[in-house]
Structure formats: structure tokens, C-alpha cells
């Protein structure tokens, strides 16, 4: 989460916080591009129409245009809880465009493609003009889902509800069973990831039983995507201005910090100064391009939780049913603490421990990835074609040696203009470790080429794939994090923390420091301190923890389940980030049973592998 890795739903269904998001900003400002590794449905595009304004349940306006409101209404917020909600058919565009607009765009694309095809026929030597005009449309997968969209108004500042307002974009995937038992709100993580996009991928993310039972409702939290969003570059300066730091769903994008022995020779002090300058500039850009500018001071998770309660009420749901991953578990925990009486069936997969500081989270993640790498080495050495010899320690050292060597002399690829550095390799390792072992064979192949042939082509190809599927959350990651957590320590403290991380997690130590420094120059800071969340009076909350999760270590899920008065832990002995929606039927069945019928799994249930 804040600290290092942006935690998002990443495994077989998609969407953490990017390892060393601050380092990615430096890479981006130097011309690099953030990238994201997607598996399964991560890049699935679903082209469907929507439904009319009150199809299914959830956020449906009552007759006469007044919304059906459920549950108590906080004083002073009556107009928001009772606002009319106007639904319209929408397509799967990773946004909330009307279906008619998508149809018009598709028609224009087809016309352009036809023209390009004719030109290509007339001029055989011209380069693949059709590829530039519409192959993405022709290759997009389809689904039988029905989507509808709406835009909800909420206060910018809940302390001043009569002041400025902002918009929250919502997308609903209608239940496939013909009769919905209600609305299930979802969040993929981040902060900065789009729930609107996640709703489009629900067909591949969730079980058929869950899709049949519920209307799935995704929303872009304040500051994100199709909602009133933080914007850090204008349309006309995106090519020349410093790029936004990566908020990709994997440990990051571009490069990790270059202060470490595994990454390069730059000193911590040099890195700290360049990071200060980079984020001071980024903060200025976000402030100049975000409208309203005050949004940067009001994208904290507490405000997002209050937005969620308005959405719940407008959905006609007396209780919030919710499935959240990674950072989405923190959002729901804050919701349960704020509105315990409004909680329904809540499942939190890959939990954030709200009692940890930024530094504690960063170190925990670095150690998590280091342990996950050791697990990979064991897997590799028990498989064919592994280039790593000796035991686990020896194999890890060979990877460290490769990283150091590639930083000194980058690996060649098939493209003479493209090389692969040690930082690129660390990024790729992080991305693969986000997934289960079913996705590890390509990593073994890439390491074999790199170690035995000094060929970085496989790593470069992985980077290009990640770049093509990246999902940038703008400055939302930094903005939310710096409002949710206070700055602790100073440069001396952070340097000492880095030295500790180098001892405990040498390869991923660069990811263990930085966000306190970033927030110290960000200029939009909160005062909320890390603390346990108990949510007294909340309905039972199911917390799912994966023993081999590097981004949200298992200890965090265990801790959150113990903190919550009504928490119960479900353990999956597996690898990768988050569990539900993968191949572990034990996990999927337990989550479905609670969300659909309200039946909690037996206490202490542990699921093993793909059982």
C-alpha cells in the first residue's frame, strides 16, 4: 500500500501499490513509461451495450426521478442521499461513455479502417495502416453482460457539504440470473485503480454463481478515472512535461530506486535529493491541472468511504455488500469503522494492516517480495530448464549477480536501440511474483536467456506487454497516500531504514523507503495516524490472506482479522497477490457462500493450493 507497492487486484483476475512509486516517477521523468503486468482478464475489453435507466437493482431511481434511499441519512447530507439518479446504457470502454457514443466511435473507426485499407491496397509499401486505425476494436473480446452507468454528486469537503461538489462515476453489470438479490460493490485496489474498469472485467474475475446472484457495481473513487480526477498533465504538454509516477498494479514500473547494491551506484543522498525535486515538480503540475485544485486536499480514504455510503443508500441497499482487494480492503475497513451499522456481507482479500506506518509497510513488502523470490528459486530448481544452480541461497545470489552485472553492462536485445538494465530485471521479477507459479515458466526462460546468453529480449518483451496494458491512476496514488498517512522521520531516519532494508531484503530494499520523503514535499498532507480498526458493531467480515502474497503479506491479513471485532480469517496456502477468482476452488466456494447466502466458512479454515 502506501509506502511502496500500490496494491491492486493483480492475479488471475487483475487489479498494489507500485513498488517504489517514487522511483518510477524519476524513471518516467527521464523518459521511461510506467508499465503494468496483467494476467488473465487484466486487459480484457468487453464490448456490450447497457440497459435502460432502472434495469436490475442498485442505484435505480424511483418513479418521478427521486432516488430510492435506504438506511439512515447523516445530518446535512440529505440532498446527496436523496438525489435523483439517472442511468443510461453504456459500453465497456473503461469509462462511462454512453453506448450511443461508443457506437459512433466504432462507426468512425470502421470508416477510417476502410479508408486505410484502400490506401494500403493502392500503396503496398505503406506500413500497416490498418493496424493504426482499428485492430484493437476488431480484436476486443465480447461478453453477454449488460452495463449501465451513472454519475453521482458528492461533497468535495464533507466538513462543508454546502460548498463545492464533485462527481463519482459508477458502472453496473446486471446480474445474469434474471433476478438480482442486490448490489455487490467492488474495488480492485490502488489507490488509483478504476472500479469502473474492474466492473467490466467481472465476467472473468468472479464466479458464475456470484455474477448470477448480484448486480456488480464498480465505481471510480474520488480523484480517479471517470470521477472528478486528479490530473497531472495537460493535453498539450503530456509529451514534454514530467510524467506522473507509476501507479501500475505491480512493483514498479520503470526502475526501483538506484541507491542499492542490486540496482546501481547512486548514493542514497543523491537519490533523495533528485526525488525531492521530481515530486515537488509533479505536485506543482497536479495542482495546476486538477480541477478543482482543492481536490488534492480531499481524496483521503475517509472521504471515499463516505462517498461509498451515499452510493450504498442510492442503491437502495440498507447494508453494504462488498468485495475488495488490496487497498480496497483498507477502504472497506475505514467504511466499517465509520458506518458499522450499515455493513452487510464484506469480504477483504489481500488485506492492508491499518496499524502500520508507511515505513513498516514498505519494509514488510520488500521482505515479502524477497521471500517470494526464494519460493520462485525453489520452484525453478525443481523444474526443467532452470539456469539457477545450487541451493536456494546460491540461486538467489545468481539473480543478484545478474542484476548487478546488467546495471554495469545492460543486456542486449533484438532491438539495437533497446537494452535491459538490472533495474528492469528487478521490475520484471516483482511483476512475475505478483502471480501464481502457473505464470512463472516465462520468467525461467527469461533468466536462462539473460544468464547463459546475455540476452535480455524476453525481459524487454515482457516490459512492452506491460506497457501496452498499463492503467495509470494519475497522481491519485501519491495524493491519497499522503492524506492517509502522516510524514514520519527525516532524511537521516529514512537512510537508516534503507540500510535495514538492504540487510533484510537486498534485492527489493530499494522499494522499502521513499513515501515518507515523497509526502514531505507533496504539499497536501493529512493528520490521520495509523491505528487499529475494530469496527465495533459491524456485521461479520471475512478476511482472506495468502501465505505467499508479497504485496500484502499474510501477516497483514491475519492482523486485520484479529483487529476487527467481527473479523474472521480464511487462509490460502498459495502464491501471488490475493486469492479469490483463481484456481483455488476452496477459496472461491467459501467466498461465494458468504456473499451469496451469508454462510461463513468454519473458523480457522485453510485452503491448500488448487484444492
Automatic annotation (TrEMBL):
Keywords: Hydrolase, Signal. Residues 506-607 form the Peptidase S33 tripeptidyl aminopeptidase-like C-terminal domain. Residues 118-133, 248-265 have a biased composition (Low complexity). One of its GO terms (molecular function) is hydrolase activity. The keyword Transmembrane does not apply. Residues 118-141, 228-268 are annotated as: Disordered. Belongs to the peptidase S33 family. This is Alpha/beta hydrolase. It comes from Actinomyces oris.
